[in-house]
């Protein structure tokens, strides 16, 4: 049987189907879509971050009201968290360092001097643990930040300065240098409490850097004092030790009659680094 004849024009493909693919146009479209998705993701993250901050602020407000409205005699103690107790351990060690340095000056027994140098190190361990305990317990305290700063000022400010005094920095200018060191440490801690929210944060919410040298860095000064004691380079009471390294600044003494030890320049430099605005120490 013969095949039926073919009528009409042969079928042709659509012009859109046969047109060449515009790769440049597709690439622009893909990039635009990717940029849009990225902007939406960033906006979502920003919104979530704002929600978390608002929730945290509300929670802090509730805790503050609970603390203020509690009229009990020991309400302060009842509002302590475990992390706050650990922070108080830091201040406890700082106070023990002060007592030990005073005992050394009274008894001239070097074992108290070594205790005075050791207690700030123990305080640093407590200082490092309190944040970990707070995260582990998933709890915070309105008093926590203030307690931390106050304890740090004792363990890493007052205690090292008083130990340096016991080791021989006892001239009026030496004492002035130590006072500048202590006050700079306190000012640095106050600035941290006031501006920590403004320092750029990483993805975990932690500050990316410290403004100025953190006051716990004074443990390096404590280590230097320990080396001086080991080498008998200090000026203890009643002639103990062979004198501080490098002695007095003789040009200053000869010109103005003022006595300042070369070693006293170390706490002065430390003070300047702590209150510096431009010095930024990355957080590890």
How would you sum up this structure, described in words?
- The structure is a single chain.
- This protein has 284 residues and is an all-alpha fold.
- The protein has ten helices and two strands.
- A two-stranded antiparallel sheet has the order 1-2.
- Helix 6 runs parallel beside helix 8.
- It catalyses: a CDP-1,2-diacyl-sn-glycerol + L-serine = a 1,2-diacyl-sn-glycero-3-phospho-L-serine + CMP + H(+).
- It is an enzyme of class 2 (transferase).
- Keywords: Endoplasmic reticulum, Lipid biosynthesis, Lipid metabolism, Membrane, Phospholipid biosynthesis, Phospholipid metabolism, Transferase, Transmembrane, Transmembrane helix.
Key attributes of the depicted protein:
CDP_ALCOHOL_P_TRANSF_CS, 284 residues, two-stranded antiparallel sheet, globular
Provide the gyration radius in Å.
33 Å
Order of neighbouring strands in the sheet with most strands? 1-2
> Which percent range fits the helix content?
55-70%
> What summary fits the major beta sheet?
2 strands, antiparallel
Helix/strand order, N-terminal first: HHHHHHHEHHHE
Strand share of the residues? under 5%
Distance linking N and C termini: 90 Å
Mean pLDDT: 80
Q: List the total number of helices.
A: 10
Identify the quaternary structure here: single chain
Given helix and strand content, the structural type is mainly alpha
Q: Runs with pLDDT <50, length 5+?
A: 6-19
Dominant shape = globular
Total DSSP E strands: 2
């Amino acid at each position: 049987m013969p095949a039926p004849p073919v009528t009409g024009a042969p079928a042709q493909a659509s012009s859109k189907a046969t047109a060449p693919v515009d790769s440049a146009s597709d690439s622009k479209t893909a990039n635009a879509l990717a940029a849009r998705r990225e902007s939406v993701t960033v906006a979502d993250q920003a919104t979530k971050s704002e929600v978390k901050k608002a929730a945290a602020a509300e929670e802090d407000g509730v805790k503050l009201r609970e603390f203020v409205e509690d009229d009990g005699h020991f309400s302060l103690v009842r509002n302590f968290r475990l992390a706050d107790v650990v922070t108080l351990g830091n201040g406890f060690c700082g106070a023990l360092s002060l007592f030990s340095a005073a005992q050394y000056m009274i008894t001239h027994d070097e074992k108290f001097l070594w205790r005075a140098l050791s207690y700030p190190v123990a305080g640093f361990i407590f200082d490092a643990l309190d944040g970990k305990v707070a995260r582990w317990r998933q709890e915070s305290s309105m008093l926590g930040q203030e307690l931390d700063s106050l304890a740090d000022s004792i363990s890493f400010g007052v205690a090292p300065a008083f130990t340096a005094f016991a080791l021989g920095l006892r001239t009026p200018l030496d004492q002035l240098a130590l006072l500048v060191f202590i006050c700079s440490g306190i000012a640095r801690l106050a600035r941290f409490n006031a501006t920590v929210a403004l320092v750029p944060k990483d993805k975990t919410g932690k500050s990316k850097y410290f403004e100025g040298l953190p006051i716990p860095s004074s443990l390096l000064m404590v280590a230097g004092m320990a080396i001086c004691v080991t080498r008998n380079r200090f000026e203890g009471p009643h002639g103990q030790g062979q004198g501080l390294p490098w002695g007095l600044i003789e040009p200053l003494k000869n010109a103005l009659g003022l006595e300042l030890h070369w070693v006293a320049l170390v706490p002065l430099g430390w003070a300047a680094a702590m209150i510096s605005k431009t010095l930024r120490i990355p957080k590890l």
